[in-house]
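Notes from the 1:1 (GR / supervisor)

We went over the backlog. Supervisor wanted to see one worked example end to end before approving the batch request, so GR pasted a single chain during the call. The sequence is below; no edits were made to it. Supervisor asked that the structure be written out right there so they could see what the output format looks like.
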Amino acid sequence: MADAKGHYGSGIWAVYALIFITVLTAASCSSKKEEKKTEESYPAKTEGNSPAENNEIQAAEAPALVLPEANGAAEINQTEVSQTARESDEPCGVIISTDAFLKELNETSDSERKIELFGSLSDMASEQDPCVIGIVRAAVTEKDANVALAAIELLQGYESPEVLPAIVSAMAHPNEEVRQMAVQILSDINDPQTGVLLATALSDESEDVRNSAIDITRYKDEQVQFKVLEAAISCPFGDVKDESVFMLEYLGGHRAVDILIEALQDKDAEFRENVASAISMLIDKEFESYKEAKAWWEKNKNKYDEDLSPY
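Structure output shown during the call:
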């Protein structure tokens, strides 16, 4: 009987030992799996996966944006699109299928099919996929306005300054709907260069494009607003000039007075009266000429705080 109990006890301990080893092994494997998963989720930054330092889309060191002349239809450059995708901090998850997309787009001459192809990118565009930017940038040079419009519409909601070169191309399109849509996309982009493009749009021959630029300017920060209004107050269109005077009077501050005084050199006497009235509202002072206003303001501006209240 004692021998039986001894054998029974030994068996129990053997089972416990086996269970302990199994649990320990499983925990070790689980730990290694988690470690491997973590390494795969957060790859180390290397020179190979860092954004390119020298490229024209990169916002940080981008040169002053200049609107190109309107171009005709052009074949979409697959290399340029791939480069655009690589320039983003976020990887382009569909770059392989993008090659097939570009191939079909270049091979078809059917505008309806091209528009249908752009429609297939709507889900990518809603996620602000960087692949879409490169495709749109080339496609907005299409002569067919409907095709160019379908392309530029994909960038609605994008917030990255990387879309600015595509907007520049679209703003040079002969069709005003394409240009207006390009301007409207600037509303979601928070970058100083938007001021350059909005100021350019205020000289557009289309009143709708100009109105869109003015409307968007109202919601930008003061730095961008003053950049736009400085150009607007001397633009060729009276509606823009009058609106700029109204906005400067509303904004106030030293910068507003500086811009308004420069506008006293305008050739239009009626417009100069509107400007003088705005200046009078801001600093309660009337002037007979630009030279008088300029000299007085340079001498006395330090007597006013930023809200134009006299010290």
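Supervisor's comment: The chain is about 60% helix and 0% strand.
Batch request approved.
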